[in-house]
Amino acid sequence: MSNREFDLFVIGAGSGGVRAARFSAALGARVAVAEERYLGGTCVNVGCVPKKLFVYASHFRDELEDATSGYGWSVGETRFDWSTLRDNKTREIQRLNGIYEGLLRDAGVRHLDGRATIVDPHTVEVAGRRFTTEHILVATGGWPTVPGIPGAELAVTSNELFALDALPEKAVVVGGGYIAVEFACIFQGLGVDVTQLYRGPLFLRGFDADVRSHLAREVRGRGIDLRFERNVTAIEKAGAGLRAILTDETTLEADLVLFAIGRHPNSANLGLEDVGVRCNEKGAIEVDEYSRTSVPSIWAIGDVTDRINLTPVAIHEGVCLAETLFNDNPRSPDHENVPAAVFSQPPVGTVGLTEDAAREKHHEIDVYRSIFRPLKQTLTGGGERTMMKLIVDRNSDRVVGLHMVGPEAGEIVQGFAVAIKSGATKKDFDATIGIHPTLAEEFVTMRTPVEDED
């Protein structure tokens, strides 16, 4: 055993860092974790968990409308109270913070409050104290990006959104990634008048083209003013509210402007440059297939590496790191066929290749696509449509992409992701009997590929 104080010192107590620390300690390593903000990182505190709670809250208006319009229920006067949702959310996050504290304590991991910086390849400093360690793991995540425009300080990011004093009546959401889309839908579901701006021709860059175009239609159908090829050049105060000046020289007045234009790796001022750890032009720490940096004793996982920026991926990377360092079992993270969801309204679920990526990789593919009205909407008169899509490599018959826009898309695609990961073929899908009536059965009943538009 090393004569240094620790075998592993983790900088950052988000989901990935905590998992790496706990698993390493279970394998006999002496581990410390330093965190300057909150246990659980972005996901628990200002990301996945509170966002999903807000998504649930934003659904209830639709459920009430469906119940009264088509299913015979009579509902009295309804009212939404923002402070109740906000404060209940905060209590739940505080409970989760305590659970993370307990997980570290029970695993025998030393938890240090404060910002950690790297002094040399085997030394970390926290609050004026220096600690020696055999390995250093950087798991500091990402941070919301704010544009350098006049008045940017008047806007908020997703970090502040969960603690607003009051729900705005009008909001401008700037951005076209999943965070922007989700918050635009959350606001709209809670009764806010929402305009969403994106500088490109279509939001959700990187997702399948049919997913992007179908969701755009659905979002507009819900009443969100979705404007592409627009951006904000300045923000100024306008009475009690704000005025956003756009690239087309028009203006929007709102109570709140949200910048959700992306996140950047949280790698600055950690001492990385001083010890020779290489970062790319975006600030992402460069790592090899085992998450090792250019300095052999320093490792990095999660969003700070800008590989696949999802909480379960960071957790997986943390497990692989523990196995590599302390179980004599080198494991490189598997980033292929990672399922993902966008908790928009309606939600998106996806796993595998987009159609464009599949054509580039496999050349000959068959595409199966179905767009239909969900059974639930047949009694309500609602206009929402679900889209489901399979992409099949024609030569091997393997299903290489599966995409959905519709109710419970994340829950449905999680199950199908097992099949995709296991190499299921279209023949396997066809041989599987569907559960009727469900949305999910559509994935095993599509028989005729769409005509090749090429």
Describe this structure in words.
The chain is of the alpha/beta class. It has 3 domains: 6-47 and 84-143 and 264-326, FAD/NAD(P)-binding domain, CATH 3.50.50.60; 152-261, FAD/NAD(P)-binding domain; 340-444, FAD/NAD-linked reductase, C-terminal dimerisation domain (Enolase-like, domain 1, 2-Layer Sandwich). It has helices at 15-26, 41-46, 48-70, 82-106, 158-161, 178-189, 209-221, 272-275, 311-326, 355-362, 409-421, 426-431, and strands at 6-11, 31-35, 110-113, 116-120, 123-126, 129-138, 142-144, 170-174, 193-198, 225-228, 232-238, 241-246, 251-254, 256-259, 263-265, 298-300, 340-342, 348-352, 365-372, 386-393, 399-405. Strands 1, 2, 3, 4, 5, 6 and 16 form a 7-stranded mixed sheet that branches. Strands 17-18-21-20-19 form a 5-stranded antiparallel sheet, sandwiched between helices. A hairpin with a 2-residue loop joins strand 11 (232-238) and strand 12. The mean pLDDT is 97.
Q: Give the uncertain stretches in residue-range form.
A: none
Distance between the termini: 62 Å
CATH class of the largest domain: Alpha Beta
- General form: globular
The second-level CATH architecture of the largest domain is 3-Layer(bba) Sandwich
Quote the average pLDDT.
97
Give the oligomeric state: single chain
Number of discrete domains:
3
User: From the alpha-carbon coordinates, what is the Rg to the nearest angstrom?
Assistant: 24 Å
How big a fraction of the residues is strand?
15-25%
Q: Profile the largest sheet.
A: 7 strands, mixed
Question: Helix content range of the residues, please?
Answer: 25-40%
Structural class: alpha/beta
Classify the fold: give the CATH topology of the largest domain: FAD/NAD(P)-binding domain
Name the CATH superfamily classification of the largest domain.
FAD/NAD(P)-binding domain
**Tally of DSSP β-strands:** 21
